[in-house]
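Input/output pair, single chain:
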Amino acid sequence: MPDLTEDLKQLRTELAEADHYLRISEIRGRLPQLETEMARPDLWDDADRARAVQTEFTAVRDDIELFERLATSVEDAETLWELGREEGDESLETEAAELIESLRAEFAELELRALFTGQYDEGDAVCEIHSGAGGTDSQDWAEMMFFMYRKWTQSQGFDLEVTSSQQGQEAGITSVEFVVRGRYAYGLLQAERGVHRLVRISPFDSQARRHTAFASFSVVPYIEDATDQIEIDEKDLRVDVFRSSGAGGQHVNTTDSAVRITHLPTNTVVSCQNERSQHQNKERCMQMLAMKLVDHARREREEKLADEAGESKKVEWGSQIRSYVLQPYQQVKDERSGETSGNPEAVLDGDVGPFMEAWLRWRRAGAAAG
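Output:
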């Protein structure tokens, strides 16, 4: 049995790092305050505030329990190793080695938390997919991308709510806007921001030729108090109403209840069609617009984020952040991190997590080098 002393020292180092990036000392002090808030009989008089408290309480409690469990497991591994050596019991040493290996995997997964450094990384995300160059293939590709992210959200246990969508002329979609709710949704999905390129034999080409299609993915953080953070002048808005094409019942589909708002100074466009009335859709639009404008202002202040966004690029050749090649070979490659997969089918079925993690590590490496 090899000497595991250095392995145990490394686990202690990783536990100390987890203590730091999980902010254990800070959140241990915060937990009693949250427990007091949760016990207030009037908590749910303000539903938004109650949800925020409940979300924070769950996150803080889970992080503390996770850290304490890991700390106990590290101690158990140390005890097993020492007992095995003292008593010459190889079965205890083997058990210690297996526990160390398991802890290594857990710390490697937990280390992803250290990559979330932004103010809104832990929160929900507002996402958009738009078809680009490539005609019908592009619109079909946009719908495939939406399916990919929907499957990914399901695998994460996140919730996805479509707020607006526009069907393609022949197939697919020209655009879709949706909200992803889950811890670190924005932190993960910001890795997907940019142009995505698909190469395949087109199902819409009667001669079965290879086609290239493009679609873009954009994301901003879901900010609960966005309308309080920014003042929007009604004179800067163009409001259009139209008939909803989405689900929602007879009332939604037969009246001009859907709303599209354009913020003229920034050319920011939002739309909503899934509420039952024009008033509700407009209210939701204003909330989404405020989020985008807050994020827009933040990006202007932070040049680095603006450079990473790549939102000024055209959705066409040479602008992609990731390529999904189905013909003449099988590969998905991220042009920034270099992460690749030889199984595009699995990626398109939602296995996009490794690309997100690789981008987060690539970003951290770039920041350290800078």
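The chain is about 50% helix and 20% strand. The two ends are 43 Å apart (CA to CA).
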